[in-house]
Design a protein that fits this description.
The protein has 341 residues and is of the alpha/beta class. Helices cover 47% and strands 15% of the residues. The longest helix is centred in the C-terminal third of the chain and has 23 residues. Bound molecules: 5-phosphoarabinonic acid. 5-phosphoarabinonic acid binds next to loops.
């Protein structure tokens, strides 16, 4: 029997219970759907956040662009809001803990710019600052690792924008149906029938490279990379086509220990499809392991979140193969503690 099919052995490694959190992700999405803010008029959107709190901003950026939403969306992962932030810029300040210094700094800047702000947090200083300044506050449950709270950190932004998005409710329902179905596959199926376990096996002992495509699966590629980093405590890298064809491929001369995952989507333009096909051939000619994945669903939301969910599970199983508890991120905590001194 594969060690990934030995549930008791997995539970001994997954001491802090990441598997349960992953299993409950569809339920989390349903709860998150009830959280929304009433939005004022705005001309552009900025989502500021870091790490697990920022990735929902990228999903929002991709989703809105593909739906033809005619206003710009920027994701700020840093201390500074761009100089064009003004009173017509809707700012989502997202921090799971509510204590991330970059996000707090951006929140203060947004106040000075008189921007309408929606804070999304489970508490901390951000909740206090939002209450004090009478900014909109979406309170989400405490006690989760930020990366296991993607539903709470992403869906309320999308839900608040529902008046602009015709098919959102139907797309959301489809997403839930698909995620409920694939949860049992990823959580229960034995390795030979389980794409998440098989992917983890391919990554084990090697360096995962994840390739998405610009303004489509690039956000999911980033999520896969960061989930591998934090859950499995492994290096991983991501990039996107077509940019990869202008630089990264030169590194293929020294490919041996890499495994490429290509994140595809039926909405790819024909030119992009051709680039993916060529990428695959060039990599295989060099003896590199190449795997392709695509999300499930007619709607983009289902495809993005189901593909994202596969990366969550695969990174979890990679942690199991490395024998590390996926939940603690000791070095991130240590760094934050040192910064606070
Ligand atoms: O996954 C993590 O723990 C990190 O990437 C955090 O999300 C990041 O450090 C920001 O913290 P917070 O999400 O609490 O704002």
């Amino acid at each position: 029997m594969s060690e990934l099919d030995d549930q008791k052995a997995l539970d001994r490694i997954d001491r802090s219970g990441m598997r349960e959190l992953l299993k409950r992700f569809p339920e989390q999405l349903s709860r998150a759907w009830d959280l929304e803010a009433e939005l004022p008029a705005f001309r552009q959107i900025i989502v500021c956040g870091m790490g697990g709190s920022a990735i929902g901003g990228d999903y929002l950026r991709v989703y809105l662009a593909r739906k033809g939403f005619p206003r710009p969306v920027f994701v700020v992962r840093g201390y500074e809001l761009p100089p064009f932030t003004d009173e017509e810029t809707l700012v989502f300040a997202v921090s799971y803990s509510g204590n991330t210094e970059e996000t707090l700094h951006c929140f203060e800047q947004a106040l000075r710019c008189r921007s309408p702000i929606v804070a999304i947090t489970s508490g901390g200083k951000l909740a206090g600052m939002a209450r004090e300044s009478k900014a909109d506050l979406i309170s989400i449950p405490k006690g989760l690792p930020p990366r296991a709270a993607l539903g709470y950190l992403f869906i309320p932004m999308l839900r608040s924008l529902k008046p602009f998005l015709q098919d959102l409710e139907a797309e959301f329902q489809e997403t839930l149906n698909i995620l409920h179905r694939i949860t049992s596959l990823y959580a229960e199926a034995p390795e030979e029938e389980n794409p998440a376990k098989r992917l983890a096996r391919a990554w084990h002992g090697r360096i995962p490279l994840i390739c998405g495509s610009f303004l489509l699966t690039d956000a999911v590629a980033r999520r896969w990379k960061t989930q591998i980093n934090e859950n499995a405590k492994s290096p991983a890298f991501y990039s996107a086509l077509p940019e990869l064809h202008h630089n990264e491929l030169m590194g293929w001369e020294r490919l041996k220990q890499f495994v490429y995952a290509l994140l595809r989507d039926p909405a790819e333009e024909p030119k992009l499809k051709r680039r993916f096909e060529l990428t695959r051939s060039l990599l295989e000619e060099r003896g590199c392991t190449v795997m392709e994945f695509q999300g499930e669903g007619r709607g983009l939301l289902a495809r993005l979140l189901s593909l994202s969910y596969l990366g969550d599970w695969a990174s979890f199983y990679l942690a199991m193969l490395y024998g590390v508890d996926p939940t603690p991120v000791a070095l991130i905590e240590e760094l934050k503690a040192r910064l606070a001194r």
